[in-house]
Every structure is written in C-alpha cells, then in structure tokens.
Amino acid sequence: MKRSTGFRDYVLASGSVKQALDGKVITFYGGPVPANADAALGSAVPLCTITVDGAGGTLNMAAAPAGGQLPKSSSQVWRGDITTGGTATFFRHHALGDDGSLSTAAVRLQGTVGLVGTDIEVSDVIFTPGDERKINYYVVAITEG
Length: 145
Prior knowledge:
By secondary structure, the protein is mostly beta strands.
C-alpha cells in the first residue's frame, strides 16, 4: 500500500496508525491508478464506497495490533453497494470529505485491487451496479527491518 504524505506525517508527529485510519472509509475506483496516495484521482471513477454495514458509518481498526499487524475491527461489517459499473483497479482508505484532489495533507492509503496478490483481493474485479462488496479481511502492517 502507498501511504500519503499526510498519513506519514500524522503517524510521525500526531498519533498512531489506528488513530490515522479510524473514522475513514474505503472507496474502490476504476480507471487509471494515481502515481501515489498524494496524487489527484484524475479520471478514475468511484465504483463503491465501503462503510459500516453499507450504511455510511466510518470504519475502525482493531483495538490493538498483534505481531506488527493491525486488522479491521472484528465487530464491524465492512460493505458497500456498487453505484457505478466498471473494473476495479485500485482503492483508497480516506476521510469522508476527501475530494480526491492533489494533497500532501490528506491522510490516505492507496492500494491495488485484484484476484490474487494485491492489497485487497476480490472475487471479481468487474463491479456491477446493484451488487455489493464486502471486505472481510483488511490488515495494515509495519514489517520488520
């Protein structure tokens, strides 16, 4: 996953990874992948926004990490309805009010989406309006060394 400058600065001076990610949402996009998490979305199209139970509530990470990994909160169901059809190419973990413009202050994670070997693995990269997507497993890790 790519971390925005705002994410890195927040963790270095203001708070924890958990604090940086709690109260955010995850949006799947189709189209060109921005070079990094600071970059503007450009012509990428939002396909589905993941919230708590798909009802608009913001997401939380688990209360404590284990072994250098911080998973999603097990008490929340992360899901969203697909609003626009397309092929998912990437996602962003971001604040609800983030408009996706160029920013070195916004706290964001950006990652790949695919069937295997990506930051978020999905059963199908083709998103069809009216369907839903769930995220059952989501972990942010800080690797050793």
